[in-house]
Structure formats: structure tokens, C-alpha cells
Amino acid sequence: MEKVLYYFLLDVPQAATIWLALMGLALVAGVGLIARPSRDGPGHDVAVREAELRRARLVTRAQELSRYAEEVAVAADRAAATARRRRDEWLVAQEEVEATWQAYEVADAAARRVAAAAVLPEPRTPRTPAEYADRERYLHRAAMAACCRKELSVLVLSEVLAHRNGWDPRRHPVEQEIVLRRAVRDGLLAAQRAAADRERAAWRTAEISLAAARSLRVETLAAAGRAGWVRHRLMPADRPSCPTGGAAQRSRPAVWWRAARVG
After folding, report:
1. Could you count the other beta carbons within 10 Å of the beta carbon of residue 238?
2. How far is residue 180's CA from residue 151's CA, in Å, rounded to a whole number?
3. Which of 37, 45, 85, 232 is deepest in the core (most CB within 10 A)?
4. Dihedral sign, CA of 142, 144, 145, 147?
């Protein structure tokens, strides 16, 4: 009995020490669990919802920017096609200016040659009704021939046939030829000036179209850059997960840390 009592009294302090140590460890663990913010608490849920909302906004923004970049690219292609068409029109107008100028030079040379013949004395012809009828027929034939060669307009031809605006069929054929050549020259000069005006207008239109195409092309590159920047911000969340854990598991400590700092 004494031995039993002796061993009992000897083991009681050791058992008490062990129990006290176990209770201390349990107390420290309990305090740590209470003091540490829970990863699955309300703060974590709010942070996750905020992160998801920000990501949804970025996705929507990326889609909008991509769609805008595509629309601007289509507009830029159309503007480039329009600029090429306007340039072709300007080249055609330039060729027309050259053609009308060459025609004017030919008409001016012909008018000068006929005017030089006017210094010669006018032939004497009998002034009979038949002579005046021949002069009228000559004027009509010469005017219609010039209109067929597109040297006279239809309006001027109608004035010639109606004997208006100085077209007198009683003049001598030489004098009529001088007047006719001058009318052709003046008409071609007016046509050349009108063609030059159209060429200048076509040049301005081509320049405006080219500037618009360049501006849209620059805007296309800028829009594509903005869309790419937003997509780049979404790339970390879209990367494939590693074998040790997913993207959500890797990003969870950061979300918990932000929630802990807010708490």
C-alpha cells in the first residue's frame, strides 16, 4: 500500500504537468483560430464578389473595344477604297484638262491662220439671192460639221441656225469662217477652264478622302491597342492552372489578405 501510494504521489506531478502543457497548447490554438480572420467569412465573400464584378466589367469593356476596333477597321477599308476611287477620278480629270488644252491650242492656231487671211481683200461676188442662199448653206454646213467634231456646242449650233447673236448668213464665207473659228476657239477655252476647275475640285476631294482614310487607319490601330491592353489585364485569370492548384486557389490568399487588412 505504501508503495502504491508512493508511486501515485510520484506520478501525479508528472501527469499534472503533461495535462497543463496540453491545455496550454489547446488554449494557444484556440486563440489563434479566434484571432485569425476566416478565409470563408463575410469579408472574403465581398472581396470575391468585387473581384468578379471587376472582371466582368473588364470583359465587357474588352468586348466593346474589340467590336469598336472591328467597326473602325471596316470604315477605314471603305475610306481607303473611296480614296483610291477619288484619286482615279482626279487622274481622269487631269487627262481631260490635258486633252481640252491640246484641243484649244489646235483651235487657236486655226483661228490665227484664218485671221491672217483676213488681210487679203474680200473677193467680189454678185450679191444675188442665190449667192446669199449659198452663203447661208455654207454657214450651216460649217457649223454642223464643227458640232459633229465637238468643237461647237448644240446651243451655239442652234444660235447659228437661227441666225442669232451675230451669226449673219449674208457674210462672205471667208468672214464666216473667221467668226466660226473664233467661236470654236472661245468655246474650247471655256471647256478647258471648266475642266481645270473640275480637276482642282477632284484634287481637293481626293486629298480629303486620303486624309480621312489615314485618320481612320490611325484610329483603328489605337482602338486595337486599347482592346489588347484590356485583354492583357484579363490574361492572368485565364492562364491554365498548375497541378498543385488552380488559379482561384492561387489568388485566394491575396483576396484573404486584402480582406484581413480591411478588417
Report:
1. 9
2. 10
3. 37
4. positive
Question: How confident is the model over 198-257, as pLDDT tens digits?
Answer: 999 999 999 999 999 999 999 888 888 888 887 777 765 444 444 444 433 443 333 333
Domains and CATH numbers, the chain: 48-123+172-235 (1.10.287)
Q: Are 216 and 75 in contact (CB under 8 A)?
A: yes
Cα dihedral sign, 40-42-43-44: positive
Give one word for 239, left, alpha or beta, with left for phi > 0 and alpha for psi -120 to 50: beta
**What is the 8-class DSSP label of residue 245?**
B
Predicted TM-score (pTM) of the model is 0.57
Q: Cα(149)–Cα(137) distance, rounded to whole angstroms?
A: 18
In whole angstroms, give the CA distance from residue 163 to residue 132: 13
